[in-house]
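hey
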């Protein structure tokens, strides 16, 4: 069998400056070198992109994510669009954007007068302006964002809904030295994070909780698959990132509460939810989210909160977050993205990813410290 990327033009992976560590992990899992390119910030503030190798007739994948501390959402988006445009006029055969955390995903509808639908604008920029042919992403804030595109969009979910009933999923909460330690088994669906524990076999005493009604489908599917009870919060906001009121619906008394969500930004919702859960009689509170944005006061809020552990993926760089808060635990999803790239390149079905590729904890040993941010 020919080596991956050995066809006409081959497969090439390039990275913006938003998450070069993830790009390198993906390339390494595929047995490929990361493509050579550079992004320079000119004195005027404009970006200059240069590719240092031929991309003619190549199947090219660009790794870029939103909400990175290093680059920021707007900078990352412009990098992606300029890189894709450069590749298009350099005769790349196909251009795929690997965007684990989609930019402006929360601005997906017109929820008040004169409000923009910025997620739709981003989709138009990526496809019509930049010439991107295919998008790979994870856990979109709203599924309708896929409909904003006229190209294939592969959306991988950390917690699929519905979870396939044939899949045997275990949720264990391992209790050690007064702290929950999360273990990820090797045989379970790639998009179902399982965590667990021998706290006197308390797994059946857990409850899956959605912090808002929007995530109810995600959380209830997981609760059903694990044969656990389910609860949710009714949430009212004064404005973005500011909650006016939360009402708990469901019984959590005497149980380990596991909060499930697609993202954690300022952690205000999770912190307030944990407070209400403990007031409602929960024994302890854990949280599992796909995108750990953790902006602004998030680390302080998390440190002061009653949440014992926050598990996030490396869809966004987490090194600084882990340094600032010992409660943050990172799970590596480069397995999933690398296999998605491989299957896309060979034209294979990607549905098997939901039952065969395991998650592992992100390892610093796999990440090169030599990857540098864009040049000033």
């Amino acid at each position: 069998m020919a080596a991956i990327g050995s066809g006409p033009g081959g497969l090439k992976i390039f990275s913006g400056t938003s998450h070069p560590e993830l790009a390198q992990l993906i390339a390494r899992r595929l047995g490929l070198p990361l493509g050579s390119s550079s992004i320079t910030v000119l004195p005027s503030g404009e970006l200059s992109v240069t590719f240092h190798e031929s991309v003619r007739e190549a199947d090219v994948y660009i790794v870029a994510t939103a909400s990175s501390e290093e680059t920021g959402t707007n900078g990352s988006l412009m990098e992606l669009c300029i890189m894709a445009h450069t590749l298009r006029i350099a005769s790349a055969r196909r251009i795929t954007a690997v965007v684990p955390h989609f930019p402006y995903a929360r601005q997906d509808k017109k929820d008040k007068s004169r409000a923009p639908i910025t997620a739709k604008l981003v989709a138009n920029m990526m496809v019509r302006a930049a010439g991107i042919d295919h998008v790979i992403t994870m856990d979109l804030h709203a599924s309708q964002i896929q409909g904003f595109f006229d190209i294939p969009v592969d959306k991988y979910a950390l917690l699929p809904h519905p979870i396939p009933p044939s899949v045997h999923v275990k949720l264990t909460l391992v209790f050690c030295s007064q702290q929950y330690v999360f273990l990820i088994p090797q045989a379970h669906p790639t998009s179902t994070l399982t965590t667990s524990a021998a706290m006197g076999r308390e797994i059946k005493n857990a409850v899956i909780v959605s912090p808002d009604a929007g995530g109810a489908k995600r959380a209830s599917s997981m609760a059903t698959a694990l044969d656990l009870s389910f609860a949710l919060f009714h949430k009212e906001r004064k404005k973005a990132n500011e909650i006016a009121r939360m009402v708990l619906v469901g019984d959590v008394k005497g149980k380990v509460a596991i909060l499930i969500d697609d993202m954690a930004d300022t952690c205000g919702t999770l912190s307030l939810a944990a407070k209400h859960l403990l007031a409602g009689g929960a024994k302890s509170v854990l949280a599992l989210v796909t995108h750990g944005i953790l902006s602004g006061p998030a680390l302080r809020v998390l440190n002061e909160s009653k949440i014992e552990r926050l598990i996030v993926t490396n869809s966004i760089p987490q090194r600084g977050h882990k340094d600032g808060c010992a409660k943050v635990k990172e799970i590596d999803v480069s397995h999933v993205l690398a296999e998605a790239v491989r299957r896309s390149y060979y034209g294979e079905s990607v549905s098997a990813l939901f039952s065969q590729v395991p998650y592992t904890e992100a390892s610093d040993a796999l990440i090169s410290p030599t990857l540098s941010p864009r040049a000033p």
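The mean pLDDT is 82. The CA atoms of residues 81 and 310 lie 32 Å apart.
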